[in-house]
């Protein structure tokens, strides 16, 4: 993993990925601050899994564990959709993540 990609994943993990204007752009009312914090924590957990995966000789087990440990039952359908859209951005639309997300459901 290049330094630039490492920096990008860290920045993505440490920002608010669910600002009000993006909810409105989707035609949705923003979720509560508690839900947004949980969504951002999910992004952070998966980002950590991505970083661990690449730091441990490409072992995808760490990423899969992070995906499987997401507390999806906390979120409604729109929140899950928004979360998965952000996860796809985090992984740069990589088909491997889409495949892993599909296996979680």
Q: Gist?
A:
This protein has 105 residues and is mostly helical. The protein is 69% helix and 0% strand.
Describe what you observe in this structure:
The protein contains six helices and no strands. It has one domain (3-104). The chain is globular, with a radius of gyration of 13 Å. It has helices spanning 3-13, 20-25, 33-55, 61-68, 77-90, 95-104. The N and C termini lie far apart (28 Å). By secondary structure, the protein is an all-alpha fold.
Residues in helices, as a percent range: 55-70%
How many domains, as an integer? 1
Which residues form runs of ≥5 with pLDDT under 50? none
Q: Main beta sheet, described? A: none
């Amino acid at each position: 993993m290049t330094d630039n990609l490492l920096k990008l994943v860290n920045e993505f993990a440490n920002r608010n990925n669910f600002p009000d204007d993006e909810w409105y752009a989707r035609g949705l009312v923003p979720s509560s601050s508690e839900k947004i914090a949980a969504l951002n924590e999910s992004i952070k957990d998966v980002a950590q899994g991505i970083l661990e995966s690449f730091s441990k000789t490409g072992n995808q087990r760490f990423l899969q564990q992070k995906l499987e440990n997401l507390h999806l039952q906390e979120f409604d359908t729109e929140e899950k959709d928004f979360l998965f859209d952000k996860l796809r951005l985090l992984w740069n639309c990589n088909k491997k993540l889409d495949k892993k997300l599909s296996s979680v459901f």
